[in-house]
Amino acid sequence: MFDSIAERLEGAWKKLRGQDEISPSNIRDALRDVRRALLEADVNLQVVKEFIAEVEPKAQGTKVISGISPDQQFIKIVYDELVAVMGETNVPLIEVDTAPTIILMAGLQGTGKTTATAKLALHLHKLNRSCLMVATDVYRPAAINQLTTLGNQIGVPVFDMGSDANPVDIARLGVEKAKVEGINTVIIDTAGRLQIDADMMGELSRIKETVKPHETLLVVDAMTGQEAASLTHVFNKQVGISGAILSKLDGDSRGGAALSVRRVSGTPIKFVGIGEKVEALQPFYPERMASRILG
Ligand code: GDP
């Protein structure tokens, strides 16, 4: 796992080799290369700066353990810190004792929100948790059809009221229906826009205030790179999120958005999307992501 980054950062490690302590002078180049690796992995610049500032004192003064090369030891420190920043372990979805658990999906248009709604429903369905998906994107009738088609495909019902109803009412009545029918989990798909705008945030906040979800999950496209941090910041500040789903990780992004999202919101990434199919969802594991980010 550490071989590839060791190769990538070959120049910097040479200075560490043969030393018996990782010191301020011999660590400078290594840290600069870690900084570059993180930026190449699309971790947000500010997040990179903070990360380096935290790793530096941890690495300095570390005695080199015999039998382990100092460069390997340094990479291990960086790796452990990445895992720590991303939360150490997988954080599962909340499940409340008194059903239904209510999950609100948020995100920009095209990030994979509707797909993630169906992926989550299928995931829960396989765990024998009954689900209802609620279609509140009244601005794009195609979005309602998309969710209905996905629902048919995975055998999970979809609640919709067409495109003339108010999204807040649809969400509220969807939750009511789930309560009446004793459904375990309601997943509310919401409208996205190409960019953040006040109307979208206002509507999302009103839905949230009305249905009081147990989870508000932001779907972030892993390919958006640097922008993931500002996007997460705005959604978290204006609506408040409890976690995120990182979509499109099957692309060639190194996944730096994971570090940015966690760092900026302080909330866990719960799942990753790894393809267009409804089955293409996996729990998020900080160790795997740390290895991927380090390349
Ligand atoms: P929404 O506008 O946020 O609801 O986005 P959609 O769910 O409609 O997804 C937008 C596009 O991204 C569609 O073509 C999806 O098939 C695709 N998509 C969603 N999730 C993933 C993923 O994890 N990997 C890949 N490769 N494509 C995805």
UniProtKB/TrEMBL annotation:
<comment type="function">
    <text>Involved in targeting and insertion of nascent membrane proteins into the cytoplasmic membrane. Binds to the hydrophobic signal sequence of the ribosome-nascent chain (RNC) as it emerges from the ribosomes. The SRP-RNC complex is then targeted to the cytoplasmic membrane where it interacts with the SRP receptor FtsY.</text>
</comment>
<dbReference type="GO" id="GO:0008312">
    <property type="term" value="F:7S RNA binding"/>
</dbReference>
<keyword id="KW-0733">Signal recognition particle</keyword>
<dbReference type="GO" id="GO:0048500">
    <property type="term" value="C:signal recognition particle"/>
</dbReference>
<keyword id="KW-0378">Hydrolase</keyword>
<feature type="binding site">
    <location>
        <begin position="247"/>
        <end position="250"/>
    </location>
    <ligand>
        <name>GTP</name>
    </ligand>
</feature>
<feature type="domain" description="SRP54-type proteins GTP-binding">
    <location>
        <begin position="268"/>
        <end position="281"/>
    </location>
</feature>
<keyword id="KW-0342">GTP-binding</keyword>
<comment type="similarity">
    <text>Belongs to the GTP-binding SRP family. SRP54 subfamily.</text>
</comment>
<keyword id="KW-0963">Cytoplasm</keyword>
<keyword id="KW-0694">RNA-binding</keyword>
<protein>
    <recommendedName>
        <fullName>Signal recognition particle protein</fullName>
        <ecNumber>3.6.5.4</ecNumber>
    </recommendedName>
</protein>
<keyword id="KW-0687">Ribonucleoprotein</keyword>
<feature type="binding site">
    <location>
        <begin position="189"/>
        <end position="193"/>
    </location>
    <ligand>
        <name>GTP</name>
    </ligand>
</feature>
<dbReference type="GO" id="GO:0005525">
    <property type="term" value="F:GTP binding"/>
</dbReference>
<comment type="subunit">
    <text>Part of the signal recognition particle protein translocation system, which is composed of SRP and FtsY.</text>
</comment>
<feature type="binding site">
    <location>
        <begin position="107"/>
        <end position="114"/>
    </location>
    <ligand>
        <name>GTP</name>
    </ligand>
</feature>
<dbReference type="GO" id="GO:0003924">
    <property type="term" value="F:GTPase activity"/>
</dbReference>
<keyword id="KW-0547">Nucleotide-binding</keyword>
<dbReference type="GO" id="GO:0006614">
    <property type="term" value="P:SRP-dependent cotranslational protein targeting to membrane"/>
</dbReference>
